[in-house]
Design goal:
With 278 residues, the chain is an alpha+beta fold. It has a single domain, classed as Metallo-beta-lactamase, Chain A (4-Layer Sandwich), CATH 3.60.15.10. Helices cover 22% and strands 33% of the residues. The chain is built from eight helices and 16 strands. The protein has helices at residues 20-24, 29-32, 72-78, 86-92, 110-113, 137-144, 156-164, 230-246; strands at 2-3, 6-19, 43-55, 58-62, 102-105, 117-120, 123-126, 132-136, 168-171, 175-178, 181-185, 194-200, 203-207, 250-252, 261-267, 270-275. The radius of gyration is 18 Å and the shape is globular.
């Protein structure tokens, strides 16, 4: 999809399944099951949608999926076979990992950062040898010191090679990354989770990562149980919602299985999603 001087393209890195209750928090199953079907174990289908933005002559990728280095335990947690489409997906776009200039990591959960590294001789090394990795400093500190709640999703040994390579650029709070590309601190899902707001020639694409993981999470109270600060997530969603609808913003969804890119209109009190393909 082209918007202004920018172009954004997307592909599915990996399919997996998670507990439906974990993705919708306090919302009862009788409500969320109308939106997405679950199996007998309460698992719902998920994907890791990756987005490649071409802007200012650079290739910029947002988050990087589960990757191909998952442990047996992680494969069970994510209900996946661990087969990653990361490099084949890039190839379909005419790119290789060496063509990526920036990897922007909104937060450091495994399903967003696993693909940042690969294994060579049983050692983790950065997958994108020529890229800069943009990470929030507070998020990094939290990920490198996980506690009982976060140790399942923060894996320090996968992150350390990024810093040791000298490829990490740390940011703090709201940051203008490039002309028209802004990192916006949200908190909520993690303490230092951030979103991306992108604009070119008056046309906007927002990537709010796990604040709005799918079109089914547009409603303010539809917050995953995994959010560290769910009320903060709700505050951010409430503030962004009207802008998204009124300004015709294209939303990029990291986990939506049908609509990686969508806009929204209102039909009375109902919110209607419209898939964007070009």
């Amino acid at each position: 999809m082209k918007f202004g001087q920018f172009e954004i393209r997307t592909f599915v890195e990996q399919k997996f399944r998670l507990d439906g209750g974990s993705m919708f928090g306090v919302i009862p199953k009788v409500m969320w099951s109308r939106l997405i079907e679950s199996d007998d174990s309460n698992m719902i289908p998920m994907v890791t949608n990756l987005f490649v933005l071409n802007a200012h002559g650079k290739n910029i990728i947002f988050d990087i999926g589960l990757g191909d280095t998952l442990s047996k335990r992680e494969k069970r947690v994510y209900n996946t076979d661990g087969v990653s489409n990361l490099e084949p997906g890039l190839k379909q776009l005419g790119l290789t990992p060496d063509d990526i200039d920036y990897v922007i990591l909104t937060h450091l959960h495994t399903d967003h950062v696993g693909g940042a590294v690969k294994l060579i001789d049983s050692k983790y090394v950065p997958r994108f040898a020529k890229a800069r990795y943009i990470i929030d400093k507070g998020e990094w500190q939290g990920a490198m010191n996980p506690d009982e709640r976060t140790s399942a999703v923060y894996i320090p040994e996968r992150l350390e090679p990024l810093e040791k390579s000298g490829q990490v650029d740390f940011i703090e709070g709201d940051t203008e990354l490039f002309d028209g590309i802004k990192a916006v601190h949200t908190g909520g899902h993690t303490c230092d989770h951030f979103a991306l707001e992108i604009e070119s020639e008056g046309k906007q694409v927002f990537y709010y990562s796990d604040i709005f993981p799918s079109r089914h999470h547009m409603k303010v109270p539809f917050v995953p149980a995994t959010d560290i600060l769910p009320r903060d997530s709700m505050i951010v969603k409430r503030a962004a919602f009207e802008r998204i609808v009124d300004q015709g913003v294209v939303m990029a969804f990291d986990h939506d299985i049908d609509m990686p890119l969508a806009t929204f209109t209102k039909d009375g009190k109902e919110l209607v999603a419209h898939a964007v393909t070009e």
